[in-house]
Amino acid sequence: MSLFDEAAKTWDTKPHRVETAKKVGEVILSSVPLSKEWKVLDFGAGTGLLTFFLSPHVSRIYALDNSKGMIEVLKEKIEKLNAENVEPVLSSYGEVQFKEPLDLVVSSMSVHHVEDVEELFGWFSSILRSGGYVAVADLLKEDGTFHKDNTRVFHFGFEREEFEKYMVSAGIEPVSFKVVHSIERNGREYPIFLSVGRKI
Description:
alpha/beta; Rossmann fold
């Protein structure tokens, strides 16, 4: 059982996680012209905190995570909420095929767990339609003290220039970059940004 499989059971009991997803979701709604016709991917969806925030605004949202424990909790929530337009996907990125190009890829606090971010953005670009959007939230560059355990943490946050470079290399044009929230921990603030891009 992975760290995330175990953590899934109590994931939603931490107020900062719920608040972060809400803040990120609100800024996505104000930054991206979502449509009820859109098909969306939530990458690293976890228990679906961001997924369920956005699901009323789109046609279908795929909730992708490679943790069985997270997907199990997400499935329970789908049933409880009768969220028919949310589709859980237990897999790693790059192994998933979609029947048609997607309109938007979102992600919150997951990309720092991906070793090859350039490859990840290349995959995002490959599943998006031309003109489709990417909206990714993560930590600004930090000193490695955000996580108690840095196992499977490949990046201690990101600088704006570094993150937008990943987008550009994948054919995604940066649209906006703003700090949308911060998490207080260890007696200090850890800012969280939302970076929005559009596939050229």
